[in-house]
Structures are given as C-alpha cells and as structure tokens.
Amino acid sequence: MSYLLPKNRFPLILNTKVIAGVLGTYTVSKLVYQAFFNPLNVIPGPWWVRFTSIPYIISLLRGNIVEFMSDLHEKFGPVVRVNPNEVSITCGSDIKRILSSYKYEKSKRYSNMNDICEDIFTTRSESYNKMRRKQVAPAFTHHGLETVDDVIMEVGIESLYQKFDEEINRNGGKSTTINYYNTFQNVSTDIIGELALGKSFNSIKNGGHLIIDYINIAIVMGALRTMLPFLIVLYYIVPKVVKLRNKAIKFTLDAIDERRKQNEENSYKPKRDDILQMYITAINSTNQKKLSNSELIKELVVMIGAGVDTTSTTMTWILHLYMMYPSVYQKVVKEINDSFPDRSKLIRYQEARKKLVYFVATVYESMRFRSVSGAPTYRMSSGDGVFLKDNTFIPPNTEMGLFIKGAHMDENVWNNPKSFNPDRFLGEEGEKLKKEVLAFGAGVRICPGKNLAWMEIFTILPNLIRKYEFKLPKDSIFGPQHVDETTGEPILAKASAYIVTAPTYPQRDCNIVISHKENV
C-alpha cells in the first residue's frame, strides 16, 4: 500500500502562487477598508492612524505618551483618533460619564498586565471588581481610617523627623541635602506596610526596601505590556527583574504564612484589622472559596504598589512645584506657621483640611498641573457605542483613551490652564473646580485608596514644612529663573508616564536642601 499523497490532492495548499494571491488580496482589502470604510475615519487624527499603531507604541515605550497625546489634541481637538481602533478623549464631563458606569468596561490591554492572576486593578469583570472592593472596603471608609492618623504620625512623620534630624546633626547641625523622591517613596511604603501587612517596612530607617525596587520595575513593565504583552517574558529572563520579583513574592508569602499562623494560634489581636487580614478571611463570591496564595500575593502587591507610587509621586510634584514657584511656597509656609504655631503638637488631617485653605488649593493645582495619572485610562465604548458631549459618535467596541492630562488642560474649563495658579481653587468657584480634578479617577472604579492618599498628603507635607526649611541646591538645573519661552512658566523636571507620571531622572532632579527653621 502506498502512503504517498495522490497527485494534486491539495492543489490550493501546495500552490504558493495561490497563497500569495490570497494573502495579497486580504492585505489590499484590509488597507482599503482602513483607508476608506472604517467608521473611525470620521474622527480627526494624523493620516497614519488609519493603518498603524507604531508611533503610539514608540511613545509608550519612551514614556512620553502624555506629550504625544497632548500634541495630537492641540492639533486635532478634544476627540482624536490615535491608532486604528482607539480614540482619545479630553472632555472632563465625557470622561466622568464614561467612568461612572461598568457598561464601559476596561479595555483588554489591562488583561495583558496579568501574570499570576487578575486583580482589583487589571480585572475587566464588573462582578470581580465589586467583589474585591467589598472585601477591602472597610480599610478605606472614613470609619476604617479613623485610626490611620496615628499610624501616619508614628510611622510617617515621627520617623521622618528622626531621619532628617540625624542627617542634619551628622552635618554639624547645618543644612543637608536629601532626595525627596526617595523620601516620599520610603514614607509612603512604611505607612502602607503598616496598613496592608500590619508592620512597617522600615524603609525610612534603612533608606529603601526591595518592595520599592520591585514596584518601580513592575509599573514600567505593566505599562509596556498593555500594548506588548509578550514582554512578560522579561519577568523570567532578565536577572535583576527575576531576582526582585522572586524576593517580593517571597516577602509577601512569608507575611501571609505568618498571619495564618497567628490566626490559628489566636495571637493576632491588633487595634485595627489590616488589609491582609481582610483579604485572608474573605470568601470569593465567584467560587465560595478563600483567596488562594496567588490571589493574596497579587492583591497585596497591587495594593502596596498603588499606595506607594501614586501618593509619593504626588507629594514629589507638589514640593517640586513649590521650589519652582517660591511665592507660592512662601504663602504656604506662612499659612502653616500662622495656623499651627505650636510645634510641639503634630498637625492632623482634619485640622489641616479645615485651616490650610491655600495649602489645599496648591495640592489641587499641583494634581491638575502635574497629575500622576496624566496618562490615558482605557475603556471600551460597549456594544452600543457612545455619543460624546459634542455629539461625536464613538462606534461600538472601540477602545477609548480617557486622557486625564487633556481634561486638566481643557480651556473650556480652566482659565489659562498652562499657568500654575492655586488661586483658581479658592472661594466658591474653586470648590466647583475641585470636582474637575481627576487625579484619582472617578466613578465606579475610582481609586479605593483616595481617602488614605489625602490623609498622607495633608499631614506629611504641612508637618515637614512647618519644622524644616526647604530650598534648591546651588547646582540645581531647575529653578524659577529657568523659564519656558513659550509659556512663561518655569521649566519642570522631565517626566515619564508609565501608568504613573513620575520624574524621569529622580536621583538627579529631586534633590533638596533642608535645615531646621531655627537655623535659617
């Protein structure tokens, strides 16, 4: 019996000319469709967006997606097509409406960020997100945060005082130089460590922690994988990444095992339940089981990362802007000194929010002007599509980039938006404008740790500013005298946007001279 294929059994498959013809026909028809018939062609944008995402991906890789999107919107308006199946939107009211409903689910690029499993941030599922929010909600309610003030004071403020005083005394009681980007990361890490795991990471004392190093890498990797998911292999082949990832997982797993043992021995008796305890005792509504180790590790690392990077980077930009605008800084200093003259008592959150009206205005303006969430957040237009405020129709199943930075620069909302002006947030009109700041997102998937972030910002900065004097080093390449000729505003440190918009060169650009007030 012959096992040879009969002659001409598969003539189409074996005919390379036919294959080439089919592929060529498909390619041409695809190009014709994209060029002339794609419903997104009515959305303004550069010519190349009909055919390719390459310029968009390059800007993402370089970390300059915010500048890339800003340039497109300045040229083409509030709704811009940025690649073959994505539009970018800057109208704040449209962004808030889209974020207010689970109907417009997160785009699939968030699934690209999953490694161990999905989590509260990456999940596209309404039920999954609601489940996780419910499990951790007690940690972030006003009632749950009642005792957090004490944690911030002890783990944050008092530890910073001790560290700064040691550095100043080591320099003979004179001024000393610190890196405030590192400082704010360390203090935020210690606070979230206490709230998430029930213990400080001692980052302030030790000058850092491996969890910070891993978070910094994971944020960049996560952003890149949204468009290039195959980059997940870097977690397994780049030695530094592999080492940090394994250490972070082991550290978190050890904390989980330790807590389980404490629960079994009934030796866990805290003043307040931490996030680990809430998750470890929770039952998943999806399968009626407790969270697995993989789920616990993922949720805890995400919660720690979110608690560290957004808050610390926000404080970094606030202090950086104070140094660029000395008149603003001096007004903040005067308000804090006048409102809280007794330095023996620490400034607490509720007092700061009530008395420091101008300081609060500077925080809002900093979050508008240099938002850590300036890069787009992505949603799908649903099977129905969506009409925007200007009657633009976004077709069904289109990816929408909700460009927060663009909303913060919308001339229809903000007077002279490219100017740093905290006064815009004063008075009755200022209260209305506060609702237009979208630094923490909005709607059904708003940042669950928003209230905690406010507490940290409104206590850490006022207490530090009251006790210490801050000024730029003499060799700083930034300052109020270095002005952008096009805007008349001081040139700010270069920023890169990988999920969080942070200084590109923090070790160079975020150094500051501190001294005790009485020594100034």
Automatic annotation (TrEMBL):
Question: Keyword Magnesium, does the record have it?
Answer: no
GO biological process, alphabetically ordered: secondary metabolite biosynthetic process
Top-rank taxon: Eukaryota
Which keywords does UniProt give here? Heme, Iron, Membrane, Metal-binding, Monooxygenase, Oxidoreductase, Transmembrane, Transmembrane helix
Cite the Pfam families for this sequence.
p450
The signal peptide, as residue positions, is: none
Q: Which cofactor does it need?
A: heme
- GO molecular function terms listed in the Swiss-Prot or TrEMBL record: heme binding; iron ion binding; monooxygenase activity; oxidoreductase activity, acting on paired donors, with incorporation or reduction of molecular oxygen
Chain residues that bind heme: C447
InterPro entries associated with the record: Cyt_P450, Cyt_P450_CS, Cyt_P450_E_grp-I, Cyt_P450_sf, Cytochrome_P450_monoxygenase
Residues annotated as transmembrane: 214-238
Gene3D superfamilies in UniProt: Cytochrome P450
Q: Which family does it belong to?
A: Belongs to the cytochrome P450 family.
Protein name, as recorded: Cytochrome P450
Q: What is the lineage of its organism?
A: Eukaryota, Fungi, Fungi incertae sedis, Zoopagomycota, Kickxellomycotina
